[in-house]
Write a structure and sequence with these properties.
Layout lengths: L13 E7 L5 E10 L4 E10 L5 E3 L6 E6 L5 E8 L3 E8 L7 E3 L7 E4 L5 E8 L18 H12 L10 E4 L2 E4 L1 H10 L13 E2 L3 E2 L4 E8 L11 E4 L11 E2 L5 E5 L6 H4 L2 E7 L7 E6 L3 E6 L5 E6 L11 E6 L3 H4 L17 E2 L24 E4 L2 E8 L2 E8 L2 E6 L5 E8 L2 E8 L2 E9 L2 E4 L5 H5 L6 E7 L6 E7 L10 E7 L13 H8 L3 E5 L9 H5 L8 H15 L3 E11 L1 H12 L5 E5 L5 H4 L6 H8 L7 H6 L13 E6 L8 H12 L4 E6 L9 H18 L2
Parallel strand pairs: 35-36, 35-37, 37-38, 38-39, 39-40
Antiparallel strand pairs: 1-2, 2-3, 3-4, 5-6, 6-7, 7-8, 9-10, 10-15, 11-12, 13-14, 15-16, 17-18, 18-19, 19-20, 21-22, 22-23, 23-24, 25-26, 26-27, 27-28, 29-30, 30-31, 31-32, 33-34, 34-36
Helix pairs in contact: 1-2
């Protein structure tokens, strides 16, 4: 028996995206595990029988996700990238069994849901939004022939590099092969330029958008007796705007989507809900205009309400994310007046904010860094709306019914990150400091574990003790919270080194969840402190937004207050304290290396070191404008004062800098500049670059290398 080892982060199996069958006989979920032979993570779908408690695999190809039961319970659909690496919907016949069959479409599927009658599937995909090449130009004054080349490249960007080039034209709603684009694809193979005309034109991990826009489609199930399932696909949304996957009215007549029909939606920073006719072509109707962003609308089964997430932009990107409920009157009466095309059918004043009275954000709170990403944070169950809300780092489950919200599940000792509900059955995914994220069934007031994929591994490791800490910032008395993990072989008669971890965001949060990093460092004899400085979520709106334009001030004081609290135990060696942070935590690492010598060595990951040069090079420019408190052409002096680069001469502490070369959230120039500034002055600094990695590491070998280097760096400077 021993503590956690570096390689253990690849041995932990993660499950999530659970779904209960309509007849409540089966639960399906995605299991992610590391395949040692292929050196990569596999994702497959498993089922669990509520009666027999038997678990069995439903897929085995290793690239499957998003399982969804048809409402009639006959089929299970899911997304898989097989054969040509193009994400498609696959259909599994639950009555007959057998292999899952691919619903062949031209589009690469991003997300999907079933229609209420189980006869069709609604899905979203990125496609070229313009029909006629002759009438379209990439920009006024572009050279002759530019349009067709850009269209071909844009279509190709929606698929993997291995996928065959396909184009599409739409005639009466049916998808057909476009032979003209097929012929031009060979010529376009060497066409590598990117023409940029949008303000927001790329996203971390996703890369460059090209001219594609996400649209919604309806796929009608084909004759299942055919060998090849080639369904008819109808495009529902149109225009040079993105339309994330929407929600259909219970009668199937209307599609409600979140979209902003503006020339530069990213600059407007607002949201709209649009209604599109789902059965017959027609003009969209503007249902609701929001003062802030909104997403993921979800129509109630009775058709009288639409739930969605968003905020009212009071504090720009630092505004807490809320859950809203929109009462929807009879659509027949609402939509009779076609002159209201661009006028909201419903006023914003009609919206109910369900989370505002709690002053806590909608969402699942903290989650383990090794937890399955897919989250379900709201769901209708008959006339009740179930939703997650975060409080002091923990995710809690609530139910809204008949005008009020009540707590359903959750406590301060763990965090619920996802759930699914069907009548009297509730399945949650939850983690605590000494348990991995697992699925549990809550029924008749009792809770029992459903999954135990890590049980054997769990029994072979010794867990370090973690306790919650309460303290305050000495500068102004602000109450703060943190979690302190003890060294594995702790004895009170000696002092230990400390690793101080700082979370990203800044609007993130640590909480009562399993932390692989904390357990790893603890197994190596370190204390570990993880705390939530101002700027963190789940402590109220003022706590989250008070650092806007003031990074490196109160938040830095709070971080150091966490260090002071750990030292107050009397068990931590003040001469052997170390710091590591990623993203915003990387910013804090770079900032504190210029402000204090209390840490013996520091490691920054994917940091921002210069707020001025971050402008326009990151993929979240508008968010950075607000949070940094200025732009290079105004407020530049403030940006400089809050940037570590301009305090580089003060650095005395050894610094290790880690960064992915494809990072678009905090581009690698941020590490390059600070590294060069320190190296030029003869400081102790090392830069490690990871080709092909973006902001968050995905390759197993790099995930291992990250912690291997941090451990070696701290151990080297450990007195």
């Amino acid at each position: 028996m021993h503590g956690f080892l570096l390689e253990d982060q690849l041995k932990i199996k993660n499950q999530g995206d659970a779904q209960i069958s309509p007849d409540r006989s089966l639960l399906v979920y995605v299991l992610q595990h590391y395949n040692e032979k292929e050196k990569k993570f596999h994702r497959d779908i498993y089922s669990w029988d509520f009666t027999s408690s038997v678990t069995r695999p439903l897929t085995s190809t290793g690239n499957n996700s998003n399982p969804r039961f048809s409402p009639d319970g006959k089929f299970l659909a899911f997304i898989s990238a097989r054969d040509d690496d193009k994400s498609q919907v696959y259909l599994l016949d639950l009555d007959r069994g057998g292999e899952a069959r691919r619903l062949i479409t031209t589009e690469t599927i991003e997300a999907f849901s079933w229609t209420a009658d189980s006869q069709s599937i609604l899905f979203s995909a990125a496609v070229f939004p313009f029909e006629s090449q002759d009438e379209w130009q990439s920009y006024p004054g572009s050279p002759c022939g530019d349009a067709s080349a850009v269209k071909t490249v844009s279509l190709r960007q929606a698929h993997s590099e291995k996928n065959k080039k396909r184009g599409s034209s739409r005639d009466s709603g049916e998808i057909k092969e476009d032979p003209e684009l097929e012929k031009k694809s060979d010529d376009a193979e060497d066409f590598d330029l990117r023409i940029i005309t949008r303000f927001s034109y790329r996203r971390d991990r996703a890369g460059y958008f090209g001219f594609n826009r996400t649209q919604n489609f309806i796929l009608d199930l084909p004759d299942l007796s055919n060998v090849e399932l080639k369904p008819v696909v109808r495009q529902i949304t149109f225009g040079d705007w993105d339309h994330a996957l929407g929600t259909l009215s219970p009668d199937g007549k209307w599609l409600c989507v979140s979209s902003l029909h503006a020339d530069e939606p990213e600059l407007v920073r607002k949201g709209e809900l649009w209604l599109y006719p789902a059965k017959n072509p027609g003009e969209p109707l503007l249902l609701l205009a929001s003062p802030g962003p909104i997403n993921l609308p979800l129509w109630s089964p009775c058709g009288k309400f639409i739930a969605f997430g968003g905020h009212d932009n009071r504090y720009d990107v630092s505004t807490s994310w809320d859950l809203y409920l929109l009462p929807v009157p009879c659509l027949t009466d609402l939509c009779e007046d076609s002159s209201r095309l661009q006028i909201p059918l419903l006023p914003w004043e009609a919206v109910l904010n369900l989370t505002l009275p709690f002053d806590r954000p909608h969402g699942g709170g903290a989650s383990s860094e090794l937890q399955w990403e897919a989250r379900n944070e709201k769901q209708w169950s008959e006339s009740n709306l179930y939703f997650l809300m975060a409080r002091h780092g923990s995710g809690y489950l609530y139910k809204y019914s008949q005008g009020s919200s009540q707590l359903v599940a959750g406590d301060e000792g763990r965090s619920i990150s996802s759930f699914c509900h069907k009548e009297d059955m509730l399945v949650i995914s939850a983690s605590s400091p000494d348990t991995f994220a697992e699925l549990s069934l809550i029924q008749d007031g009792r809770e029992r574990r459903i999954t135990a994929w890590n049980e054997e591994f769990y029994s072979q490791r010794i867990w370090a003790k973690t306790e919650k800490r309460f303290f305050c910032c000495p500068d102004d008395g602000q109450d703060l919270e943190g979690w302190l993990t003890y060294p594995l072989e702790f004895t009170p008669d000696k002092k230990y080194p400390l690793v101080h971890l700082v979370h990203g965001g800044p609007h993130g949060a640590y909480g009562p969840v399993f932390s692989f990093a904390a357990q790893l460092f603890a197994a190596q004899g370190y204390f570990v402190i993880m705390m939530n400085p101002r700027g963190s979520t789940s402590y109220g709106q003022e706590f989250a937004c008070c650092i806007d334009g003031k990074w490196g001030d109160r938040d830095a004081a709070d971080v150091l207050a966490g260090l002071d609290d750990a030292l107050s135990t009397g068990y931590v060696d003040p001469d052997n304290c170390f710091l590591h942070g990623w993203s915003y935590g990387g910013y804090m690492a770079c900032w504190l290396v210029t402000q204090t010598t209390r840490y013996r060595a520091i490691c920054s990951g994917a940091p921002v070191s210069d707020m001025r040069s971050d402008y326009g090079t990151a993929d979240i420019t508008m968010a950075n404008e607000w949070e940094y408190g200025g732009q290079p052409w105004q407020g530049a002096e403030g940006l400089m004062q809050r940037s570590a680069l301009f305090h580089a001469a003060k650095v005395q502490t050894p610094l290790l800098m880690l960064h992915g070369e494809n990072d678009l959230r905090c581009p690698i120039i941020q590490t390059e500049q600070f590294y060069t500034a320190l190296k030029r002055q003869g400081k102790t600094v090392v830069m490690v670059r990871y080709p092909e990695e973006s902001h968050g590491f995905r390759k197993p070998k790099n995930m291992l290398d990250r912690y291997r280097r941090i451990l070696a760096w701290f151990d080297h400077f450990r007195a």
